[in-house]
Design brief:
mainly alpha, single chain, 2 strands
Length: 139
């Protein structure tokens, strides 16, 4: 994957900046600095701050490599040793966003292929099931 789409970046930033289960503002700042993504540091929400930093970096470099590095560092399970209850909700939120790019973060913190069907696949499955039921005379 060379780049994330704008909507994928937005979904990733939303998941990572989730108020209840996401990263804190200081965690975002530290992780951005660690992976050398320029921080937009301004009075923005965590979601907007992350999105702007990700989008600016991806536009500048033409690749999502540094965003993936950010996610890898953010989702290291050992970072959550003192607050283990934060890891799984954030991982699930992030995986919902990453599914649109065919990616997922495993419980180990490593990358895994997404096993979630894409939304259009779910809709197609529902339509096919409905058609099959209609053919069989179910209503």
């Amino acid at each position: 994957m060379k780049t994330f789409t704008q909507s994928q970046l937005q979904a990733i930033a939303d998941a990572l900046g989730e108020t209840a289960d996401g990263l804190t503002g200081s965690e975002i700042g530290h992780l951005l600095a660690t992976v050398k993504i320029a921080d937009t540091v301004s009075p923005m929400t965590k979601r907007h701050r992350s999105y702007n930093a990700f989008a600016n970096d991806q536009n500048k470099r033409g690749a999502c490599t540094y965003i993936i590095a950010f996610i890898r560092k953010a989702m290291k399970p050992e970072r959550f040793a003192r607050e283990a209850e934060r890891f799984e909700p954030m991982r699930l939120n992030l995986n919902r966003a990453l599914a649109f790019a065919g990616l997922a973060v495993a419980a180990s913190g490593n990358w895994a292929p997404s096993r979630q069907p894409k939304p259009y696949q779910k809709r197609r499955g529902v339509r096919e099931l409905r058609a099959e039921l209609t053919i069989r005379g179910a209503s």
